[in-house]
Amino acid sequence: MSPETAGAGAVEIVLAPDRPAGGGEDELRAGLAESPRRIPHRYGYDTVGSRLFEEISRLPAYYPPRAERELLREHGGDMVRLSGAAELVDLGAGSAKKSEILLAAMDAGGLLRAYTGVDVSAQPMREAARRLGARWPALRITMVHGDFATALPWLQGGGTGRLMAMLGSTFGCLTPPERSSFLHALRACCGPRDHVLLCADLFQPVDAVRRAYRAGCAGERPVRRLFALNTLTHLNREYGADFDPAFFEPDVVYDIPLRQVRGEIRSTRRQRVTIPGLGMTLDLAENETFLHDVLHKFELTELVSELETFGFHCRRHWVEETFQYAALLLS
Fold it and tell me: What is the pTM of this model?
């Protein structure tokens, strides 16, 4: 990694030159060749997509951000006290607004020294760095512009008492092979004094889930629809593709037996799409779908068992009871 730009004070933004955000072409090619075709979810989180997701997060029916904030506000002091961490490493930082709750708890406990944010979208990180730097001028802030595959090896060996936090439902958005790769890399990254804070959506009543993930699909400002279609326009911008969003229709499906919420984009007609930057041509059938977002809903025992398989120990967990949202502190 090399510095991209250095801000005022103790702020530094670094870039992963070997796999920058928007890279990972092999992964994208493989996904587009699958059946059904899949676009890795991180391609939705460019600058436009990140802002649209912030709008989704404010929808009244979309409960996960509220449930997570409630957990962090009520138990954040215990989380940072048990970890003893002086640095927060924010995996999938976004705007870092929820992470700021943990930073405030670390500050109140006299622990706060440094913050490292990792995200594939650069602009929200820059905005977060300015906001956090204004609130804590002495805080050492590093923003890593890249994905987990790039960032975690770079973070390896810094285990002097860090809290590695994956907030939001990011862990559930990873496919089982992606979760395996991520947990292997995270385990290798962690030192003996590091802790991991992992948040995840549990399996809730069907009606609450359906309301949450269908919110913003229609109406005057259909932000979830815009977010889905932005995945295609992102591929147009980055790889010279010629997706025409007018001929695609987003949908959200809750597969109860698999405990999955799937964001799908359906081709409304037979069409051919070329992607020069990937050297690919896609012949799409009418009603053929792309998966652009798959969120797994966990059983708590299932989640703990999966994490322990990779060498993590669950020291304590907290569950928001109304919507069954969980936070786990791992050593």
Answer: 0.86
Q: Residue 235 corresponds to which tokens in the numbers above?
A: 């591929």
Which residues have C-beta within 8 Å of that of residue 227, sequence separation ≥ 6? 44, 49, 52, 53, 56, 216
Tokens of 192: 């003996």
Residue by residue, pLDDT tens for the chain (331 residues) are 444 444 445 667 666 545 444 446 888 999 999 999 999 888 888 889 889 988 998 999 989 899 999 999 999 999 999 999 999 999 988 888 999 999 999 999 999 999 999 988 878 888 888 999 999 999 999 988 888 878 888 888 765 689 999 998 889 888 888 899 999 999 998 988 999 999 999 887 778 888 888 888 888 899 999 999 999 999 999 999 999 999 999 999 888 888 889 999 999 999 999 999 999 999 999 999 999 988 899 999 999 999 999 999 999 999 998 888 999 999 9
Q: Rounded to the nearest 5 degrees, what angle is found at the Cα of 4, between the Cα atoms of 88 and 131? A: 45
Q: Residue 69, SS3?
A: helix
Contact 28/105 with Cβ under 8 angstroms? no
Distance CA 324, CA 306 (A): 19
Instruction: Please report the domains of the chain, with CATH numbers, ordered by start residue.
Output: 2-16+23-204+299-330 (3.40.50.150)
46 neighbors 299 (Cβ within 8 angstroms): no
Helix axes 122-135, 99-108, angle to 10 degrees: 20
**In the chain, how long is the greatest CA-to-CA distance?**
61
Angle (deg, nearest 10), helices 148-155 and 176-189:
20
Distance, CA of 21 to CA of 118 (rounded, Å): 11
Q: How far apart are CA 301 and CA 117, in angstroms?
A: 29
| Cβ(109)–Cβ(77) below 8 Å | yes
Residues 6+ away with beta carbon under 8 Å from 134? none
Bridge partners of 289, per DSSP, are: 266
